[in-house]
């Protein structure tokens, strides 16, 4: 009987830990998830992801593909997160290339290029990616009459993007064209202003605008920064085209709207004489401008300009862009008033 009791106790001791191991819950696998947000205020760019959109994703050195489906990103292959691990995540849209630090960018494709970085842990496995714009955009709003056919310019057509840093190394400049084929009006276009993606980190120095089959060169001084839309306002006089201003709008929604560093100035001078008289245009250092002489005539600004007036009162308005904060008037005869409120 004693032997039977000892055997029973030994069996119970052996079985007890075995049962405890079986009942202990296993640690569940935690997998990486992606949550994306496109922050934008520019109509040309991608506003949201749709089904079957794909991104190239780098998760801690592992290259995976993310496919958008029913409001979620499906990752292939899945990436598990271990306890205490912090995983760096970088994504690029559209899915192109294999090296997240050397993504080829071809501007001829005219596809909005988005990138974002975030981190994920086993306790917070959803990496929240605020997708930023790697490219920039140019828009052209032209006032006048006739048909604006196209705008040509020299900017890099290719580049290499490091999606981890946002740095985009541009290639050589090549001729690019934005086809417009649209009738102009005196006020300019109020919607669907023609625009085009461009590679940033370069200087735009000249445009060629084609109107009714004729090319008009336009001098421009504008540095193209990343993630910005530049809206150039141009006026066609029938014999020339000149810029009157440029808006610089951040493409990312969380950045406030800004004006560009190019200044727009208006100078108004009132002249009077009982006889015919002649005046010289004010001298001002400007990229471009126009003079409305106040007698029904006007022309592109030239520092050496001279104008003949009939007897009477006339208000000359000089509009310039990219000018300094001072000007010179060689002769104040016949001058009644100078208005500097918009200078």
Layout of secondary structure:
Elements: H1 2-23, E1 33-38, E2 54-59, E3 62-69, E4 72-76, E5 86-93, E6 103-106, E7 114-121, E8 126-133, E9 136-143, E10 147-156, E11 158-162, E12 167-170, E13 173-183, E14 195-198, E15 202-211, E16 214-224, E17 228-236, E18 241-250, E19 258-259, E20 264-273, E21 277-280, E22 288-292, E23 298-300, E24 306-309, E25 312-321, E26 335-339
Parallel strand pairs: 1-8, 9-17
Antiparallel strand pairs: 2-3, 2-5, 3-4, 5-7, 6-11, 7-8, 9-14, 10-13, 10-15, 11-12, 15-16, 17-18, 18-19, 20-25, 20-26, 21-24, 22-23, 22-25
Overall description:
This protein has 343 residues and is mainly beta. It has 3 domains: 33-133, Immunoglobulin-like, CATH 2.60.40.2620; 136-157 and 170-259, Sandwich (Immunoglobulin-like), CATH 2.60.40; 264-339. It is built from 1 helix and 26 strands. The strands form 6 sheets. A 7-stranded mixed beta sheet has the order 1-8-7-5-2-3-4, with no helix packed on it. Strand 18 (241-250) and strand 19 form a beta hairpin. 30% of the residues are buried.
Number of H- or I-type helical stretches:
1
As residue ranges, the low-confidence spans are: 1-21, 253-262
The gyration radius over C-alpha positions equals: 32 Å
Percent strand equals over 45%
For the record, the count of structural domains works out to 3
């Amino acid at each position: 009987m004693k032997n039977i009791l000892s055997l029973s106790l030994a069996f119970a001791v052996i079985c007890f830990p075995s049962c405890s191991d079986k009942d202990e819950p296993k640690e569940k696998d935690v997998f990486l998830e992606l949550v994306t947000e496109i922050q934008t205020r520019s109509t040309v760019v991608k506003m949201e992801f749709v089904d079957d959109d794909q991104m190239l994703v780098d998760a801690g050195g592992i290259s995976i593909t993310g496919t958008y489906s029913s409001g979620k990103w499906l990752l292939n292959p899945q990436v598990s997160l271990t306890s205490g691990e912090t995983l760096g995540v970088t994504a690029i849209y559209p899915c192109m290339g294999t090296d997240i630090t050397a993504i080829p960018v071809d501007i001829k494709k005219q596809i909005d290029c988005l990138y974002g970085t975030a981190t994920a842990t086993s306790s917070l496995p959803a990496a929240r990616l605020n997708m930023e714009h790697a490219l920039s955009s140019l828009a052209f709003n032209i006032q006048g009459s006739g048909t604006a056919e196209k705008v040509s310019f020299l900017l890099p057509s290719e580049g290499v993007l490091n999606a981890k840093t946002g740095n985009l190394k541009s290639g050589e400049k090549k001729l690019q064209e934005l086809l417009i084929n649209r009738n102009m009006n005196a006020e300019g276009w109020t919607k669907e202003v023609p625009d085009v993606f461009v590679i940033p980190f370069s200087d735009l120095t000249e445009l060629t605008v084609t109107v009714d089959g004729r090319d008009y060169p336009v001098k421009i001084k504008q540095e193209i920064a990343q993630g910005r839309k530049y809206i150039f306002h141009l006026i066609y006089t029938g014999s020339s085209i000149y810029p009157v201003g440029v808006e610089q709008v951040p493409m990312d929604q969380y950045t406030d709207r800004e004006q560009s560093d190019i200044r727009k100035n208006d100078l108004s001078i009132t002249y009077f004489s009982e006889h015919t008289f002649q005046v010289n245009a004010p001298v001002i250092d400007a990229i471009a401008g126009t003079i409305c002489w106040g007698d029904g005539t006007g022309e592109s600004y030239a520092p050496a300009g001279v104008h003949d007036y009939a007897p009477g009162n006339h208000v000359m308005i000089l509009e310039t862009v990219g000018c300094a904060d001072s000007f010179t008037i060689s002769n104040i005869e016949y001058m009644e008033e100078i208005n500097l409120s918009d200078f």
